[in-house]
């Protein structure tokens, strides 16, 4: 049995090496399609259609479906209103097993973040330098999606059959707290015994993810010139004080160890980022008085187990302490307005069998012990871990500059990832005695 397993691993590795150009071509084709998430709407359709054709050409049963046409989509407890899904289909494909095996779902998203300023050349034209492939979405997360597809094709080409089904889905609207594409898949009934999300992890295994909130924080005041002793309160000053608090509080939070089991044993920074600052009449050529409102947009991350109300109260309590006042002492407190859905952190149980299985495949493919820890970001994993019986783990390629100019994926790591995924499918879904 052990000899057979080693033989399969060697055949998989050889296939991956021989199909490196196919991997590059497939990823390059996906990158050439503009799938930028426009927050309310998106432009994923042409890429999803091309991807669906790829999957069919590889011999998989693939389909396109519109989220709005899924019965129960709006009624799903994780559905978030206010988005337009016209012409934004999801893609789902299945490789049907022979039966009596566990199923595995690879859930990826096709949309990308906005084009950040500073790109050298077109972000939609892939460029290869050494082992790096540059392009918008190469790292987050078209590369991981391609790896999952080619891992299935690898086993098919090698004549290896699985007992359990393998499902691959490409969803729309993940960026900017979308998640409704993933919700539509669950409302449609696309389920599996376990889920792998190919978000970029640098080949680490993440059984947990952070959560986060994007708020517009507003301070209000009075304006004018105090010619007659009027009391003037400039909200920009209050906002400046709040920003100073945020800077200090981010440092303070980094001194505390994260929760067990996936964030314990280390201290790390939970980002609090001021993403936009707005005050005054921006249409006026000049302003000689203070604003009546000041808006500070902030992204604040949190660990699993913290909800939106707790996170907001944590900030308000910390701000009062920073200012040295108690509630009711006249401190101008900010108003919080949600800009996107609150993304809850999520985690899976430590005894899920897929964790040691994937860790073993990582070690086998890389020759190094797997890093198993909590992720430094939020993603759609909560839809599975909080609203379904399918535990979701995150495992993806190495690269850099996600959501930034010069985004790239490391092609060597992408090849290794195909090997890891293929080996994991054999062990999780079960290898059938029958061969193609």
From TrEMBL:
This is Acetylornithine deacetylase. InterPro entries: ArgE/DapE_CS, Peptidase_M20, Peptidase_M20A. Pfam families: Peptidase_M20. GO terms for molecular function: hydrolase activity. Gene3D superfamilies: 3.30.70.360, Zn peptidases. PANTHER family: ACETYLORNITHINE DEACETYLASE (PTHR43808), PEPTIDASE M20 DIMERISATION DOMAIN-CONTAINING PROTEIN (PTHR43808:SF25). Keywords: Hydrolase, Zinc.
């Amino acid at each position: 049995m052990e000899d057979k397993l080693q033989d399969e691993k060697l055949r998989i590795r050889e296939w991956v090496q021989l199909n490196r150009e196919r991997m590059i071509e497939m990823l390059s084709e996906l990158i050439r399609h503009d799938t930028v998430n426009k927050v309310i709407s998106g432009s994923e359709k042409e890429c999803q259609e091309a991807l669906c054709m790829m999957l069919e050409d590889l011999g998989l049963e693939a389909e396109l479906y519109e989220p709005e046409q899924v019965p129960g989509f709006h009624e799903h407890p994780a559905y978030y209103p206010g988005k337009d899904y016209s012409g934004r289909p999801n893609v789902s494909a299945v490789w049907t097993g022979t039966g009596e095996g566990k199923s595995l779902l690879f859930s990826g998203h096709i949309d990308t973040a906005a084009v950040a300023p500073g790109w050298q050349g077109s972000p939609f034209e892939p460029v290869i330098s050494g082992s790096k492939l540059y392009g918008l979405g190469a790292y987050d997360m078209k590369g991981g999606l391609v790896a999952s597809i080619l891992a299935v094709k690898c086993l098919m080409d090698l004549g290896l059959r699985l007992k359990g089904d393998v499902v691959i889905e490409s969803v729309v609207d993940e960026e900017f707290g979308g998640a409704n594409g993933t919700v539509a898949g669950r409302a449609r009934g696309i389920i599996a015994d376990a889920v792998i999300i190919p978000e970029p992890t640098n080949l680490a295994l993440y059984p947990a993810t952070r959560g986060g909130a994007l708020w517009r924080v507003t301070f209000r005041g009075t304006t004018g010139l105090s010619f007659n002793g009027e009391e003037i309160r400039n909200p920009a000053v209050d906002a400046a004080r709040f920003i100073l608090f945020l800077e200090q509080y981010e440092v303070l939070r980094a001194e505390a160890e994260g929760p067990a089991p996936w964030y314990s044993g280390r201290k790390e920074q939970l980002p609090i980022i001021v993403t936009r600052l707005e005050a005054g009449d921006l249409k006026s050529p000049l302003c000689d008085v203070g604003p009546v409102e000041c808006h500070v947009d902030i992204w604040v991350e949190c660990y699993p187990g913290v909800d939106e109300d707790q996170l907001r109260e944590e900030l308000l309590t910390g701000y009062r302490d920073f200012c040295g006042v108690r509630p009711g002492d006249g401190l101008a407190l900010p108003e919080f307005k949600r800009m996107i859905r609150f993304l809850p952190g999520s985690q899976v149980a430590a005894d899920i069998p897929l964790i040691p299985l994937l860790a073993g495949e990582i070690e086998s493919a890389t020759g190094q012990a797997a890093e198993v820890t909590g992720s430094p970001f939020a993603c759609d994993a909560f839809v599975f871990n909080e609203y379904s019986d399918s535990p979701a783990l995150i495992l993806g390629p190495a690269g850099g500059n996600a959501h930034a100019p010069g985004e790239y994926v490391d092609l060597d790591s992408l090849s290794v990832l195909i090997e890891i995924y293929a080996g994991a499918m054999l062990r999780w879904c079960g290898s059938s005695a029958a061969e193609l």
